[in-house]
Amino acid sequence: MPSSASLRIIQFNFNAVAKNILFITLDSCRFDTFKKAFDGGSIPNIASIAPLHKAFSPSYFTYGSHAAFWMGFTPGVVDCESPFLNPKVAKLFRLSYSGSAKKDVDQGLYLRGKNIIEGLHHSGYTTIGTGAVEWFNTSSASGSVLAEPFDHFWFSGNTWNLQSQLSWIDECLSELPEERPRFVFLNVGETHVPYWHAGASWECWPSPCVPFGDEHCSAEESARRQRACLEWVDHQLAPLLDRFREGTVLICADHGDCWGEDGLWEHGISHPATLTVPLLLRV
């Protein structure tokens, strides 16, 4: 069970708290990578949001996880009886037709629409989203499914474009009146294979983690690079997190990666390493 301190985040009626919502997915970020950085104090901006929880994602690849997120099935802490941390108890985002648990209506945000993005729009939110990995490529039929519900969406064009994504978000937000509630979604690609960021001291390729493994694969190097990327991302996110300092913030990974466990590499496979993810939630 989470500590009493961690439960403070869900002791409010959701509809009575700050109206602005920020949802960040750190693509492919393993729980152990995140925990070491969190415990080591090297991601202070992200760590300031809320206690860290070990959660399970609804899928082991980007599209599957985000499709579930859009239905309100965010990562869950299975041995926890707290709403929102465990969506089985009560969802943070509850679609009107997806069950009738009273806790969701009383404590979560009750939405009407095909997905939570459309539901937020119908509730008066301006919805803004940007994705880094190819599953969000709006020129593809599959990518447009994830992007279509947003009022404003931008596919960054490559996996390592966080600075441009943040600039685009800032431009969108600067054009909104302050009284307008906003929902911002950000998919971060730097923590995705090959674990690289702008200005990194190592080359982008070859990747230390590829499906089925090869001579370049290394669990140690994968862990080193992903943590370095996470720490770089933390620094870049500081202004956006500050902008939502009085809002609801959910930060998680959509899935993890295998680094040689049971002879497996990367994601797209059902395994504890791909399904176990970090979760931070401040309501």
Could you give the order of the helices and strands? Answer: EHHEHEHEHEHEHEHEEEHE
Put simply, the count of helices is 9
Indicate the percent of residues in helices.
25-40%
Derived from helix and strand composition plus strand pairing, the structural class reads alpha/beta
Distance between the termini: 19 Å
Tell me what you see in this structure.
The chain is α/β, with parallel strands linked by helices and 283 residues long. The chain is built from nine helices and eleven strands. The strands form three sheets. A seven-stranded mixed β-sheet has the order 2-11-8-1-7-5-6, sandwiched between helices. A two-stranded parallel sheet has the order 3-4. Strands 9-10 form a two-stranded antiparallel ribbon. The protein is globular and about 55 Å long. Mean pLDDT is 91; it is low at 1-17.
